[in-house]
Design goal:
It is a single chain. This protein folds into 2 domains: 78 residues; 26 residues. The protein has 123 residues and is mostly helical. 53% of the residues lie in helices and 9% in strands.
Length: 123
């Protein structure tokens, strides 16, 4: 399969911004986190113009050229893009461990769990 490279002209940047804005609106309407794969994004862009496949390198370059894109995109990696939606992605919702250390060098969470376990044994 031939991967077509393309020049990141103003038309491409504008089309990318518009596609991501529409995606963001749809995700916010559904109240879901905005995650889009490069394959899906490439397909949407190909409908608008003669664009090749989008990947992380292309997004890196596009973000440097557009402040709008840096506001629309929360993060991106090799798998795809997380949009700055009103909803948090599942990985953002995961509880963060309490890493604050006590005087004994263990986390408060661990200390509290041990204390609760000891209390149950006494009851």
């Amino acid at each position: 399969m031939l991967i077509l490279e393309f020049d990141q002209s103003n038309d491409f940047i504008t089309d990318l911004e518009n596609v991501l804005k529409l995606e963001l609106i749809n995700y916010n309407r559904k109240k879901s986190p905005g995650e889009i794969s490069y394959e899906s994004l490439s397909q949407k862009l190909q409908k608008l113009g003669s664009y090749g496949s989008v990947n992380r390198r292309i997004i890196d370059s596009a973000i440097e050229k557009s402040e709008v894109l840096s506001q629309l995109i929360k993060s991106y990696d090799e798998d795809g893009i997380d949009l700055s939606t009103d909803e948090e992605s599942p990985k953002d919702k995961a509880p963060k461990p309490d890493l604050e250390k006590t005087d004994q060098g263990i986390s408060k969470t661990t200390q509290q769990a041990a204390s609760r376990a000891a209390q149950k044994e006494l009851d």
